[in-house]
Design brief:
Elements: E1 10-12, E2 16-17, E3 25-26, E4 28-31, H1 39-47, E5 51-53, E6 56-60, E7 69-74, H2 82-90, E8 94-99, H3 105-118, H4 129-136, E9 143-150, E10 161-169, E11 173-181, H5 190-204, E12 209-215, H6 220-223, E13 231-235, E14 238-242
Parallel strand pairs: 11-12
Antiparallel strand pairs: 1-4, 2-3, 4-6, 5-6, 7-12, 7-13, 8-9, 9-10, 10-11, 13-14
Length: 244
Amino acid sequence: MSVNQKKPDLFLSMPHPCSYLPGRMSTIMFVDPQSRIDDALYSDFVQHGFRRSGELVYRPYCRECNACVPVRVPVTEFKLNRAQKRVWRRNQDIVVQARPPQFDSEHFALYQRYQAARHPGSSMDDPDPERYLHFFFSRQVKTVFYELRLSPGPGAGFGRLLGVAVVDVLRDGLSAMYTFFEPDLPARGLGVFTILWQIAEARRLGLSWLYLGYWIEECPKMAYKIHYQPLEGLAKGKWSRITI
């Protein structure tokens, strides 16, 4: 942690059913919600495997399970594989624009369509704008909403909104907090394109890493991150390469 800042207290949650692996219980370690966390301290926490959900900064802490592995891409070394090159070429008609972290009704409507298609009946498939706000926003962290829009024709104004990447800006990289996109365009591979764009953006900004959250080999929804190579994982306090 930062040497000039008092370390916040950490707490453990009560065990609860795991969201990713059926039949297992999960415990999270989280930062005292009353603590002040600035960009520098949050960057330190992410380097130690933490993520955030709204104001809550946390990481899995399951004594009998190490399935959730924090991962990051070294952006200067990343190389697109053949499938990723196709997705990148296919989406060159997309323009990405940075927006401030505030409620936008167009974003929220897309978020609802995405959740209804991808996670029907889950806790995230919720039409409540307040829960949406609480999930994405933090008063203490620098966050950018990157809009993915079809490139408009001359004088046409804004193109169709295809996706939104919610990204935290760290001292050493970008943290891909969450992405939602148009669910009726599977051929575009918008989820893949968004990660590729974030890698390129981190490189453009002179940053070292794109933090992708947790890779869970046994969970199909979280196992895809292994395809962004080279990839580093955090285990026993040390970052090291994970290969396919």
